[in-house]
Write a structure and sequence with these properties.
The complex is a heterodimer of chains A (168) and B (438).
Chain A (H helix, E strand, L loop, with lengths): L1 H7 L2 H16 L22 H9 L1 E3 L9 H16 L3 E8 L6 H21 L7 E7 L10 H7 L1 E9 L3
Parallel strand pairs in A: 2-3
Antiparallel strand pairs in A: 1-4, 2-4
Helix pairs in contact in A: 4-5
Chain B lengths: L4 E4 L7 H8 L18 E5 L8 H15 L3 E3 L18 H5 L5 E9 L5 E9 L4 E10 L4 H17 L8 E8 L6 E8 L6 E2 L7 E6 L5 E9 L1 E8 L5 E3 L7 E6 L5 E7 L5 E7 L5 E3 L7 E6 L5 E6 L6 E6 L6 E2 L6 E7 L5 E8 L2 E8 L6 E6 L1 E7 L5 E7 L7 E6 L6 E2 L5 E7 L5
Parallel strand pairs in B: 2-3, 2-4
Antiparallel strand pairs in B: 1-6, 4-5, 5-6, 7-8, 7-30, 8-9, 10-11, 11-12, 12-13, 14-15, 15-16, 16-17, 18-19, 19-20, 20-21, 22-23, 23-24, 24-25, 26-27, 27-28, 28-29
Helix pairs in contact in B: 2-4
The chains are: A alpha+beta (168), B mainly beta (438).
Chain lengths: 168, 438
């Protein structure tokens, strides 16, 4: 305890930790754990990309062939919006994805529609439109790779990713 | 290709009796009626071309493989041959070929010219009529000999079926390697039989949906190389690339017009829907053709350029629609149970090929241009993206079995028989057939 207290009261170390967190975001990587940053075990640094992913939830899921924001997704997006409105230094890219049960071009369009629906929901919750961009990956980048519905439902998703500085 | 010279063989001094036969009105000529429901493959003997080295046997094996894969020919095992052809300028002993039921016979020779080029000659014989049907010769470099073999196979196919061949063609496709969640997708081109693979992109960015220009050695495709997915043009021979248009959002699903002067594609709107636009490649003028609050994509022109078939989910799920080339007269044509996408208009103009999803399966099928006469050619776990051979008799598409790890390229004929895998080193998807090469 004494060691942590000493570290966190050292302004040089605090500056270093903040620097690491920002660099990590720019690379779309999150620090492995708070321990890596010398903070000891426990919560991610508030305001870090890891904090967003772990404590807020960076993704929502969709029904087959749908780009409607489900009720469970609405609560995730509301939490995202709260967090994003608190930490305004981040630019945001919303990635839209589809499962493999569709043809390639249609799924690109479907991923784009999911990303736009997600973006619009975040805007409705007060996130500034000029911080938000979208991109569709169609069915090209699944996260789950089995050949049944347990994977397909994870792949029908929109992922809110923290990019570089807002406005860039 | 300029370096390939083709000429008709003059009727060389053949057996006297044969010359007389050749003056008779053609009768009992061997031919294949490709419009019959079930075609019995025609037995054909393809002898090794005479040559100083192995190239004679190589050419004849390429010709035999092409004809066999078409499903219309049954090359006869060489071990059954009785006559050993030693002079391809002389008439063969027709009796020796008739007795093994070879209805057609191919003979040939490869020789070296003084200037270093190779000369390849072939003759196609009707063994039952006892006459020569074709005689042609080609002058080209050794490196071009595979092409010469495909041209010979096309000539035989054309003479015996009465329709254009498709063997002297190439296929542009996406070479897929690596794990499914981080797959590397490279633009690649090969001969239609899987030979001579060449990569056209390095795989650092995802590339997809390449399509051939009907008039030039040029393709259009979509790539993530600039970050946002966008449509590009690529000159195959020079490697020169350019962005098609300068639009704020994603552009995708490109395809050329039949005259090669336009690219038609989807543009993403800010509201998340996609509409179809045509861009004139010379003037860069862009015309919006659809304006629905839905996904409109995968446009494909009719061969006369007057109509466009496309996919739209304006009715709730993906279905096939046809409109006039100016965007007027949009109407739905697919009404079978299930969803339909990736429509492609046949080069003959009479059919539309599509991907259908029904009952948890993916299917490749064709329908008439008004949506009637639907026929499913192939069904399975996952298959999509048909492309037409330039003669309109064959389709190629990509197909993946459950648990197979990735897709492979397949071809099938319009009767739904004769499904064949195209050999590729890695997984393959998004095939697009070239027109017959010039």
């Amino acid at each position: 305890m004494g060691r942590i207290a000493k570290l966190t009261t050292n302004p040089v170390v605090i500056a270093l930790v903040a620097g690491l967190a920002v660099a990590g975001c720019a690379n779309k990587k999150t620090p492995n754990s708070a321990a890596d940053l010398g903070l000891g075990a426990g919560a991610a640094t508030p305001g870090s990309a890891q904090d967003f992913t772990v404590n807020v939830g960076d993704r929502i899921f969709f029904d087959t062939d749908s780009s409607s924001i489900r009720a469970d997704a609405q609560s995730t997006l509301s939490r995202q919006a709260q967090w994003l409105n608190k930490y305004r230094q981040y630019a945001i890219v919303v990635e839209g994805h589809a499962d493999e049960r569709g043809t390639r071009e249609y799924n690109l369009a479907l991923g784009a529609r999911r990303a736009a629906a997600t973006r619009d929901y975040l805007i409705s919750q007060g996130v500034a439109a000029n911080r938000l961009k979208t991109i569709s990956y169609g069915k090209e980048r699944p996260v789950a790779v089995c050949d049944d519905i347990s994977c397909w439902s994870q792949n029908r998703r929109a992922v809110t990713t923290l990019g570089g500085a807002a406005g860039s | 290709m300029k370096q390939l010279l083709r000429s008709i063989l003059i009727t060389l001094p053949l057996a006297a009796g044969l010359a007389a036969v050749a003056t008779l009105p053609a009768r009992a000529l061997v031919e294949i009626d490709v419009n019959k429901g079930v075609v019995e493959p025609l037995p054909i003997a393809i002898t090794d071309f005479l040559a100083g080295d192995g190239i004679g046997a190589e050419i004849s094996s390429i010709v035999a493989a092409d004809l066999q894969r078409s499903g219309l020919f049954a090359p006869i095992d060489k071990s059954a041959f009785i006559e050993k052809v030693s002079n391809p300028d002389a008439a063969p002993r027709f009796e020796d070929w008739k007795v093994i039921n070879a209805q057609a016979l191919v003979t040939g020779r490869v020789s070296q010219e003084a200037d270093g080029r190779l000369r390849a000659e072939f003759r196609l014989w009707d063994t039952f009529a006892g006459q020569q049907l074709i005689g042609e010769q080609f002058f080209s470099s050794k490196a071009n000999m595979r092409r010469v073999a495909h041209i010979i196979a096309d000539a035989i196919y054309e003479r015996l079926t009465g329709e254009k061949g498709y063997f002297d063609t190439r296929v542009v496709f996406i070479d897929e390697s690596g794990s499914k969640n981080a797959r590397k997708k490279r633009l690649a081109i090969m001969d239609q039989d899987g030979a001579n693979v060449r990569y056209l992109s390095d795989g650092r960015a995802i590339a997809m949906t390449p399509r051939f220009s009907p008039t030039r050695q040029e393709i259009t495709y979509m790539s993530y190389e600039s970050g946002q997915p966008r449509v590009y043009l690529l000159q195959i021979e020079t490697g020169q690339r350019e962005l098609v248009g300068n639009f704020p959002g994603m552009t995708f699903a490109p395809r050329f017009s039949p005259d090669g002067q336009k690219v038609i594609m989807s543009l993403l709107r800010d509201d998340g829907n996609s509409n179809i636009y045509a861009m004139d490649l010379r003037s860069r003028a862009t015309t919006r053709l659809t304006n629905s609050n839905a996904i409109d994509t995968s446009p494909s022109y009719s061969p006369d350029g007057t109509k466009i078939v496309f996919t739209s989910d304006r009715g709730g799920q993906p279905q096939i629609y046809v409109m006039n080339a100016d965007g007027s007269g949009q109407s739905r044509v697919s009404f079978g149970g299930g969803s339909y996408s990736t429509p492609v208009w046949s080069p003959r103009g009479d059919l539309i090929a599509f991907t259908k999803q029904s009952g948890g399966e993916f299917q490749i099928g064709v329908m008439r241009t008004d949506g009637s006469g639907e026929r499913i050619l192939s069904s399975g776990f996952q298959q999509e993206g048909p492309t037409w051979a330039p003669n309109g008799r064959y389709l190629m598409y990509f197909k993946e079995g459950a648990g197979s790890g990735g897709p492979r390229l397949y071809s099938i004929d319009l009767t739904g028989r004769n499904e064949q895998q195209i050999p590729t080193a890695n997984f393959g998807s998004d095939p697009a057939w070239s027109p017959l090469l010039e």
